[in-house]
Amino acid sequence: MFSFVKSFVGVKGQQLGQDIVKAIVEIDPESATQAQLDQMERDLDKAGDVIQKLRSDYDREVREAEAASKRYNQLMAAAELLQAKLADPAVADHAGIEASLNRLVSQLEQLQPEVASEQKDVDEVKSLLDQANAAYQEKAAALTTARQNLERAKRDMQRAIQEQERADEKARRAAEVAGLRQTSGSSLTIATDAMQRRSDEARAKTEAARLKAETLTTLTRPTADDPHIAEALKAVQGSSPSGNLADRLARLKK
Length: 254
What we know:
The chain has helices at 2-27, 29-87, 94-220, 227-237, 245-253.
């Protein structure tokens, strides 16, 4: 159970770390990319340090292998020389030469695995050095490509921003022009409508005033159009009221 929980926490921790990195990249992709490039460059420097160490190891192993091989070849040449002496009947002290040859052969037998081991070490270090050089070249190529991609992405982003700014400016100007047209048209329409309403109102008021005048005139002079009434009124307009003053006053009191 504990191992499961430990593994689960480890997986969730990795996922959380990836989510955090992703969020950071989304917020500031340029800085995140530059940080990644810096990390790649540090990795390249570390790979360079490893290569230098492997080269030093390789040079040392080569020197040691060459020294062992040189010693082995010298001993082999001496053994061959002693063997030739043993084959020569004219050479005395065959027993001593044979004993010396026996010691040389024993020494060669002991040295041979050492020479093979030294050469094996050289081959192994050479293989590691080749792998390190290949990895270094790959890292260098990846770093170069990443930098080129970053520069290309920067240029693309700058062009996109400029295009967006131009598009926004174009849209803003279009909106201003459309607003001017709409405002001018609306103002003109509003002004025309207002003038038309005022004209209608004035005409209505004029017609109402004329109607009122005609009506009042008709009411105040209801008999103006009757010729007989007009003649009779004309005849009596010049006459004075009949009776004396006291009678007239009495009639008014009634």
